[in-house]
Amino acid sequence: MTLDELANAVKSNFQTLQESEIIGRIMIISGRSFDRSVKGYQMLIEKNLIPENFIDPETKGIFFELLKAKPGVKTIIDKFDCIPGKMKLLPKIEVTFLPPPKLSEAELLQRLNFSNLDF
Predict the structure, then answer these.
(1) Measuring CA to CA, which residue among 107, 105, 85, 95 is closest to residue 24?
(2) What is the Cα–Cα distance from 73 to 63, expressed in whole angstroms?
(3) Confidence band for 65, pLDDT divided at 50, 70 and 90
């Protein structure tokens, strides 16, 4: 299978796809491993066989950021022979922790008094 045939098979009947979906389709169509499918995807991009507007702009680059930040995802895909598909983006939740309250020496000693505990 040539790169042109692969690109046409990946793009067939779709207006846009996410990068993870494109890599998954390459894995299914070519029967290649995850690593080889990622390299195939990069080759298709380099040779302009997949136009920039075909890749979903909302999720562009997020799949590769995920792989870089969490290498275990690649291991799971390889070990369980998974095919990546559509990713659902969830809103980012910011969590902040307040610093502990400042205690006086008497309050600290009272909290550290374990004489009233049964153990």
Answers:
(1) 85
(2) 10
(3) very high
